Amino acid sequence: MIRGNIPNPLGVSENDELWSTFMKIVDFHVHVGKGAKKTLLPEELLKLMDRHHIEKSVLCPVEEYISVRNREGNDYLIRLVREYRDRFHGFAVANPWCGREACDELRRALDKGLRGFKINSILQGFMLSDEMTDPLLRICAEYKAPVYAHTGTMGNATPFQLLELARRHPKVHFVMGHTAFSDFWYDVIPVMEQTQNIFVETSHASPDTIEGVVNRFGVDRILFGSDLPESNLPLEIKRLKLLRLDARQEKTVFFSNAERLLEDINDH
Ligand SMILES: [Zn+2]
After folding, report:
1. 34 Cα–ligand 1 center, Å
2. How far is CA 151 from CA 5, 139, 157, 252, 263, in A?
3. Is the pTM of this model over 0.85?
4. pLDDT at residue 11 tops 80
5. CA of 131 to the centre of ligand 1 (A)
6. Element (H, E) at 250
7. Domain layout of the chain by residue ranges
8. Between these two residues, 16 and 124, which has the higher pLDDT value?
């Protein structure tokens, strides 16, 4: 059961030969579970992954589990990554407003096998640059856990706010969700120029924006992500195929960068 906004404006065919030759893909951003508005169940996701050559997906929970029901959301992911060890990685959620409790929950989730930390300052209700996240980000530094931050929304989820976090926590790898689509694409390159520890994730982003990043920095800081069930997997793949990267660059963006980020985390 998939419920959400799944546009396919280009009429992308699932049999398009553009991606039928792919080797392996890691999808760095997928929401899984049954939420108030968004639903993608793991069985359905696995079918989509098989159909589109996705070897592994990096999961985070849906909506209310990101904002308030963090422990339930993390437990759901912990069960999934244990059951499908070779197909899923999970990113923990812990709302910074919960203070000490959030820190305990993040440690618990990372100790139980989740491999990163997801923040969404829109759903969780804070300014992305706020110092209230610092204790959580110090835990990420300790565990070498990458941090995925939703960006691109006016007010409290901008690239320059993410830059403040990246500067305060230089040992943490940050992922700029959706490459700041849609409101802040013009801040992407100025922010990446000022720090080495920010990667971009490609879901929803315009090919122009990603092309600008490739031209300026090469492909080593770009991660393919779909944001299922909010987008359409073949469409997200095709978006990057439009850039006409060579085979080595495609492998880096669709696979190797994700593997490199995820293997850093301390084994527990
Ligand atoms: Zn998302």
Report:
1. 14
2. 18, 21, 5, 23, 24
3. yes
4. no
5. 22
6. helix 247-251
7. 21-263
8. 124
